[in-house]
Amino acid sequence: MRILGIDYGDARVGLALSDALGMTASPLPYLSSKDAGALFSKLNEIIKQNNVEKIVLGFPKNMNGTVGERGKITQEFADNLTAKCGVPVILWDERLTTVSAERVLNEANVRGKKRRASIDSLSAVFILENFLTYNFSNNH
Known about the structure:
Shape: globular
Number of strands: 5
Order of helices and strands: EEEHEHEHH
CATH superfamily: YqgF/RNase H-like domain
CATH topology: Nucleotidyltransferase, domain 5
Strand order of the largest sheet: 3-2-1-4-5
Largest sheet: 5 strands, mixed
Radius of gyration: 14 Å
Number of domains: 1
CATH architecture: 2-Layer Sandwich
Distance between the termini: 17 Å
Number of helices: 4
């Protein structure tokens, strides 16, 4: 079963895809989130091409665990995603995933346009890897 990881942002949507066994996550090119119709169309295409059966969507919570404005926007996106793509969506706590992605890019000395193009999908990889690790450790 393939799982799609998503880091939803105002400008870009980072994507990651699991392998068929649900053990690893690989980045996909990010999508623009400016045109909702085009975004859902492209997501549907990715879902069909890769036989995605589940989506793990990064859910931004405040550090104290509460849900702020960005979390509410993400919840609305999750509802639309379920309705338009027909695949179950799991909201997954994404606290500190962007910080982790920034740390990796700093260590690799990635800057400028290449950094902007990488950070969202790398965040999606961390979201999906955290989910896969959690499920593996709880099922074995």
